[in-house]
């Protein structure tokens, strides 16, 4: 019988506690140096304590490769608590909190630290960016892939509009509040500090949504003209970004917060970066 998220959560806390009792320690995240607010690094948020997850979470994937690994991970991470689209606003204020200013969030593509209170749809606000563009598979904002925190991030309203539903690729021109991100007529390149984050979010979605629970079968491919098809590119570039930009403290903490406080599932490619090459 699969272990429920709540049972896994309590087992995680029990293991972490027993580790302390026997004189071991659970690694803790440390805050970045001052002035690093525009980078993709973070410490534990001020409002949510994180704890080491139970390594047995991935027991069903142990020793598997290729399609068998992908199928096993789908089974594991599909066991999740879903939240509404309106609840995403407050969740992002926790998952993406600026480690140097608890009143702000860090915007994904821009790297800007912006007040949590400026969430909305006006110029100067931040809104909810679907990293896997919601039109790629036409799942919209309905509870499910449209509200999955593992690929939803805060972003400047205008920058979000510029990214639109473009696939990811190298190249393009800068734009206002780009933070180093680039765009052209059919693709978007995020700033260097979050290239790996973007890749791992896309690949999470491809494993989580396999067409077995009423949603489209999402898959990465090597195209930048996917339109409304349930595909996202470019896989070859995403794999390069994954290698060039390994999981940061901010990204790992975010994974923990989503697991502990919201969805109770994890992005396996943050925990096990080697699984990207094993599957793709």
Characterization of this structure:
Residues 170-181 have a biased composition (Low complexity). This is Ribonuclease. Keywords: Hydrolase, Nuclease, Signal. The chain has helices at residues 5-21, 66-77, 85-95, 157-163, 195-208, 235-244, 249-262, 268-271, 275-279; strands spanning 97-98, 101-106, 113-115, 126-130, 152-156, 167-168, 182-183, 187-189, 219-220, 231-232. It has 280 residues and is an alpha/beta fold. The chain has one domain (66-269). A three-stranded antiparallel beta sheet has the order 1-2-3. The chain has a three-stranded mixed beta sheet with strand order 6-8-7, with no helix packed on it. A hairpin with a 6-residue loop joins strand 2 (101-106) and strand 3 (113-115). Helix 5 packs across helix 6. It is globular, with a radius of gyration of 18 Å.
């Amino acid at each position: 019988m699969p272990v429920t998220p709540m049972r896994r959560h309590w087992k995680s806390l029990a293991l972490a506690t027993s580790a302390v009792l026997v004189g071991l320690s659970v690694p803790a995240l440390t805050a970045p140096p001052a002035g690093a607010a525009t980078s993709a690094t973070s410490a534990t948020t001020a409002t949510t304590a994180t704890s080491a997850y139970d390594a047995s979470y991935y027991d069903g994937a142990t020793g598997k490769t290729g399609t068998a690994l992908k199928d096993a991970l789908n089974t594991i991470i599909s066991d999740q608590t879903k939240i509404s689209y309106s609840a995403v606003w407050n969740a992002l204020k926790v998952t993406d909190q600026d480690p140097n200013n608890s009143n702000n969030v860090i915007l994904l593509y821009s790297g800007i630290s912006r007040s949590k209170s400026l969430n909305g749809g006006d110029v100067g606000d931040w809104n909810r960016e679907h990293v896997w563009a919601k039109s790629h598979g036409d799942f919209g904002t309905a509870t499910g892939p449209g509200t999955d925190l593992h690929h939803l991030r805060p972003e400047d309203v205008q920058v979000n509009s510029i990214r639109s539903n473009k696939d990811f690729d190298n190249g393009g021109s800068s734009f206002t509040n780009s933070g180093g991100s680039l765009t052209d007529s059919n693709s978007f390149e995020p700033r260097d500090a979050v290239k790996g984050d973007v890749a791992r979010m896309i690949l999470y979605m491809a494993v989580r949504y396999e067409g077995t629970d009423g949603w489209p079968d999402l898959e990465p491919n090597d195209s930048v003209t996917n339109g409304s098809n349930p595909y996202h590119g470019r896989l070859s570039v995403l794999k390069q970004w994954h290698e060039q930009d390994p999981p940061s403290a901010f990204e790992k903490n975010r994974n923990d917060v989503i697991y502990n406080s919201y969805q109770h599932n994890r992005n396996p490619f943050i925990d096990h970066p080697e699984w990207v090459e094993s599957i793709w």
